[in-house]
Specification:
homodimer, 434 Repressor (Amino-terminal Domain), Rossmann fold, 3 domains, 6-stranded parallel sheet, 15% strand, DNA-binding, transcription (chains A, B), LacI/GalR-like_sensor (chains A, B), transcription regulation (chains A, B), DNA binding (chains A, B), Lambda_DNA-bd_dom_sf (chains A, B)
DNA sequence: CCGATGCTCTGCAACGTTGTAGAGTCGTTC
DNA sequence: GAACGACTCTACAACGTTGCAGAGCATCGG
């Protein structure tokens, strides 16, 4: 069906290796021969069979991106950035969804489907520090997120603690004193929730404000509905607060909605700050002040680090690459 | 490095073909032999080299999904559904972003990178009816969207006209009479905007209400900012209206925000309805009434149709597969 | 006891490509 | 004018897998 090197060689009247040489830019070919081959390629509409080429070379020209779920806005935007960065390097991206299920995440690392790719950018949401061992995989991998540190691979992530501390300090600087938190994870020690909560505590401490457990709203997931639910609980508790730190934007947006339903004005009565820098946060009512943790940089850096590992250009040990953050000041929490 | 059939065969003391037979479930193998082979596989951690298998079989076990941009919520959710449906069939998905650029869309169809896949699910946003010819590709393809009809391939899409008519009729039934539109495309004849606008006109006609050009807000893109801008223009025009039909949810959310800033109450003063059934629409303030055009069904159907074509099970001509829609009644437009 | 049948396993070729090695031709150099 | 190197092109093998054909053996029916 599709034309192969053999077909082109026959039409051009040369050996298949010569055709291969033309395609791969081998320099020592007579212009006339080269022309004949190129004409034959055009005539037959030949395109190389990448599968065969890959078998020969051991490379596939594709990388895998594993993340919890594309319908979560943060991961969709991350994926968009990763795919764009990969495309710029001529690499295709195969996307796998794990649903944040630790079993599926473990399974994925052993999946033969990854054989279709040269390496993996992995953003786990179910695995934890105790699973660091399973990250020892026989292919290049770059880890994203903050579930696992000191693993055996490169790791690109954000400055969760510092960024959360900065977000909290920002609220404090604007005069808020009772800052509620939405989205903490009960008993968690690792992961974004724990790190961001730590940043929050650090900022309070620096300001000499005591930590008040009553101000902390716990959730199991980080969906909008969880943010809403968590805020309802806080309101029901009848504690006073003049600001809310949503541990991500989606939570903050859900919480903000509930605040408004309850008749609290944002930002007059309660200031709200989020975390993630989602595009979406710019268009809520009021627009959401948030921390951009450097998503774009993370995507680019992860792709480049992975490609370096694949090409074997780097033989350093596991690298930890940290993105810079910045606070996007909007209406929900003016400075 | 990685173990191959040869290694397993050596360890198990059988021929490589026997190992292959065990892996592929060939029935006539002695249990003892099978056990030895399986032990060897486990010992070596062997996983089949899919590239080689694919070269042999001519299949890759992956499909490509080409869409404008994952950071657009509709496409992110569509991709999530497509990947889930593909995974259920044991197929990987390679995602390509075209940025809605007609040149990149055309280029994509000729890209050798597609050789890594068995077929393509293609959602164009730049190509138009005049490009139907370029869809004649030498691999299985399923078309999504409403830019091109009567192309040479299967086509899965939504009932844009009927759904938009139903949305408009819904507003009319709730007593609204002056319904503004946000997101029309100037001079467009094909594509979602044109079809949905057509449905709007049809519903007006049925109700005996004249079409008023002053109520139509035009935009170039369908981002939130465009919905906001378009609504500002409508307000500046100083025409009366008691409802807004956002040609998609993102536009509707942008428009709703501007309405509220301008002091109009939703839904008391102005009812708002969207189109797409985004998860996000459920959590706005007020929550957005919208039309779910059957996204989930579209994703599943597209994957299954493509896999049918790939396996050659179907030899029918191009099929047009239409999803059912339903109106999700929420706060922004009560019945 | 023979041929037929079924079970178990094997060797070879092939998928389309590229790396290695080398053959043949020509011009250059000493 | 012989040796050398550069240029142009080719043959072969190999990447790891599976389809095909068949070998060797046991079992069974007549």
């Amino acid at each position: 069906m599709a034309a192969t090197l053999h077909d082109v060689a026959r039409v051009a009247g040369v050996s298949i290796k010569t055709v291969s040489n033309v395609i791969n830019g081998y320099p020592h070919i007579r212009p006339a021969t080269k022309q004949r081959v190129e004409d034959a390629i055009a005539e037959l509409g030949y395109t190389p069979n990448l599968t065969a080429r890959n078998l020969r070379s051991g490379r596939t020209g594709a990388i895998a991106l594993a993340l919890p779920d594309l319908s979560l806005a943060y991961f969709a935007e991350l994926a968009a950035s990763v795919i764009a960065a990969a495309e710029a390097s001529g690499v295709s991206v195969l996307v796998e969804q794990t649903g944040a299920d630790p079993d599926r995440e473990r399974e994925l690392l052993r999946s033969p489907r990854l054989k279709l790719t040269d390496g993996l950018i992995f953003s786990p949401l179910g695995l934890g520090q105790e699973d660091a061992a399973v990250l020892k995989v026989p292919f290049p991998m770059v880890l994203l997120g903050e579930r696992i540190f000191d693993g055996p691979t490169d790791h690109v992530t954000m400055r969760n603690v510092e960024a959360a501390r900065a977000a909290t300090a920002y609220l404090l600087a604007s005069g808020r004193r009772r800052i509620a938190v939405v989205g903490a994870h009960e008993g968690e020690i690792i992961g974004s929730a724990a790190l961001r909560l730590q940043g929050y505590r650090d900022a309070l401490k620096e300001a000499g404000i005591p930590f008040d457990e009553d101000l902390i709203g716990y959730t199991t997931f980080w969906h909008r509905a969880n943010g809403a639910l968590s805020m309802r609980e806080l309101l029901a508790r009848d504690v006073e607060f003049d600001a809310v730190f949503g541990l991500n934007d989606t939570l903050a947006l859900g919480a903000m909605r509930v605040l408004q339903e309850a008749g609290r004005h944002v930002p007059e009565d309660v200031a709200v700050i989020g975390f993630d820098g989602l595009d979406e946060a710019e268009y809520s009512i009021p627009s959401l002040t948030t921390v951009d943790p450097g998503r774009e940089w993370i995507a680019k850096t992860a792709v480049h680090a992975l490609l370096e590992r694949i090409s074997g250009d780097v033989d350093a040990g596991p690298r930890l690459l940290l993105a810079d953050f910045r606070i996007l000041e909007r209406e929900s929490a003016p400075a």
